[in-house]
């Protein structure tokens, strides 16, 4: 039976398992729990498999997914059910399933509808869970040797990944070693692989420790995840710079949580902001400056339009970098500006 199951990217580490159908009646799943689902309504969708290949799914297909929470303003909002469930939705094509709460009104089709067939259990009969939080290292700013560049955005799809990718390309051209970390988001290999193709020497993300998503993770868990991914990158290539992307916009729960943490921000050498339109530029800058965060540059989707760039430049002093500027080694001097003003950081630490 397992040979007919399409295993998703989020379940790549799952090897041997038994299928327990009885648990569907009385077991309330947790984030990271692995289960087998039958596709009831595929709606022309796909699942990214354990090799990172997009696999079309059809009605009656069997797929292996993990339960997880999803926060995606341009797509869907969904949660791990807090009680036994028989039917749910595909929340993320990387392999995340849960109960759909809301969907962006512009979506043309509903996410695929799934029927829970049973849970994947180990030899002891326990439900297999992909999350390995016990392997995380405690957050310790002193252990971070590389210069961290934080890529944040005004919203989802504002250009954070592309900005990080092209900045990695520019740093690589200048002779620096770079790593890319996607710290928060929902399991999907596309972003990290794009950054790698653009020039990063090393890539990793939260799925390394089995997280199907980071939405609703605890504060300390996020900090420990950050430290652990930094450690992996430093051990792998000893990068001069580590580009760290945090998902969605600066108002999103986990992103806001990290930006308000002065110890986390004390590990950040510089911040680059991506925006989707010109109006988002001053609004995002105002919010960041209220947190004493001063991006060294602004980039993102809005830089595709010279008119939008002109609109923004009339009211801001922060440099605007187009994609070609990010690739240009001459633009790297902008990164010598800290993500905080030193006096503000000291004040925040005293208050903490």
Any overview of this molecule?
The protein is an alpha/beta fold. The protein contains nine helices and 17 strands. It has helices at 160-173, 190-198, 219-237, 253-259, 262-266, 280-290, 306-313, 323-327, 342-351; strands at residues 5-7, 18-20, 34-41, 46-48, 54-56, 62-67, 70-71, 76-79, 87-92, 96-103, 113-121, 147-153, 178-182, 202-205, 241-245, 268-274, 297-299. The protein has a six-stranded parallel β-sheet, with helices on both faces. A five-stranded mixed barrel has the order 3-6-10-9-11. Strands 4-5 form a two-stranded antiparallel ribbon. Helix 2 (190-198) links the parallel strand 13 and strand 14. Helix 1 (160-173) packs parallel to helix 2. Residues 345-352 have low confidence and may be disordered.
Write a brief structural summary.
The chain has 352 residues and is an alpha/beta fold.
The whole-number mean of residue pLDDT values reads 93
How many E strands? 17
Summarize the amount of helix as a percent range: 25-40%
Largest sheet, in brief, is: 6 strands, parallel
Biggest sheet strand order reads 14-13-15-12-16-17
Features:
alpha/beta, single chain, 9 helices, globular, 24% strand, 17 strands, six-stranded parallel β-sheet, disordered C terminus, five-stranded mixed barrel, 352 residues
């Amino acid at each position: 039976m397992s040979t007919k199951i399409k295993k998703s990217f989020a379940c790549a580490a799952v090897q041997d398992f038994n299928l327990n159908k009885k648990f569907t009646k009385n077991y309330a799943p947790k984030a990271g729990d692995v289960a087998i689902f039958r596709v009831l309504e595929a709606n022309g969708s796909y699942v990214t498999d354990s090799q990172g290949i997009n696999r079309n799914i059809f009605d009656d297909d069997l797929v292996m997914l993990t339960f997880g929470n999803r926060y995606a303003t341009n797509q869907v909002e969904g949660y791990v059910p807090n009680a036994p469930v028989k039917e749910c939705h595909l929340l993320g094509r990387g392999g995340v399933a849960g109960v759909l709460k809301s969907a962006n009104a512009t979506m043309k089709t509903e996410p695929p509808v799934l029927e829970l067939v049973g849970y994947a259990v180990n030899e002891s009969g326990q439900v297999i869970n992909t999350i390995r939080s016990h392997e995380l290292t405690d957050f310790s700013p002193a252990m971070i040797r590389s210069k961290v560049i934080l890529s944040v955005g005004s919203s989802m799809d504002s250009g954070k990944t592309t900005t990080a990718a092209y900045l990695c390309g520019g740093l690589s051209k200048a002779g620096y070693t770079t790593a890319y970390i996607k710290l928060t988001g929902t399991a999907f290999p596309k972003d990290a692989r794009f950054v790698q193709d653009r020039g990063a020497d090393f890539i990793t993300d939260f799925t390394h420790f089995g997280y199907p998503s980071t939405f609703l993770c605890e504060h300390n868990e996020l900090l420990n995840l950050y430290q652990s991914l930094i450690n992996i990158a430093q051990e792998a290539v000893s990068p001069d710079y580590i580009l760290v992307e945090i998902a969605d916009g600066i108002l999103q729960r986990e992103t806001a949580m990290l930006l308000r943490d002065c110890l986390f921000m004390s590990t950040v050498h510089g911040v680059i902001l991506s925006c989707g339109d010109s109006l988002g530029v001053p609004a995002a800058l105002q919010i960041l400056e209220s947190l004493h965060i001063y991006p060294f540059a602004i980039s993102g989707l809005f830089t595709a339009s010279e008119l939008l760039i002109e609109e923004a430049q009339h009211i801001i002093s922060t440099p605007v970098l187009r994609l070609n500027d990010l690739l240009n080694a001459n633009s790297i001097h902008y990164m010598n500006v800290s993500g905080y003003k030193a006096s503000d950081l000291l004040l925040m630490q005293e208050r903490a």
